[in-house]
Design goal:
- With 82 residues, this protein is mainly alpha-helical.
- 77% of the residues lie in helices and 5% in strands.
- It contains two helices and two strands.
């Protein structure tokens, strides 16, 4: 399967965006003072669920961004050989 340049860039941008957004979210989650993430210093179910969501999003962002990067590399190889 050959990806177009715009699709490859979109996938790569999505992967980067996913990392930026979720890293920011995890930092805010750890610093949470509202009592949602920590109760008496112990992590709550809210914390664990959202940490799991972040980890899954990191994995998916990495996979999707990697597909975009591979698509861009394949396009640059074919344009050099053509």
């Amino acid at each position: 399967m050959k990806l177009s340049r715009p699709v490859s860039w979109f996938l790569l941008a999505f992967g980067v965006w996913s990392w930026v957004i979720w890293i920011t979210f995890v930092k805010n989650l750890v610093k949470d003072g509202s009592g949602l993430a920590f109760e008496n210093g112990d992590p709550t179910a809210y914390f664990w669920v959202h940490l799991l969501l972040a980890v899954v999003s990191f994995v998916w962002g990495t996979v999707i961004g990697g597909i975009g990067l591979r698509g861009l590399r394949a396009l640059s190889r074919t344009s050099r050989t053509s």
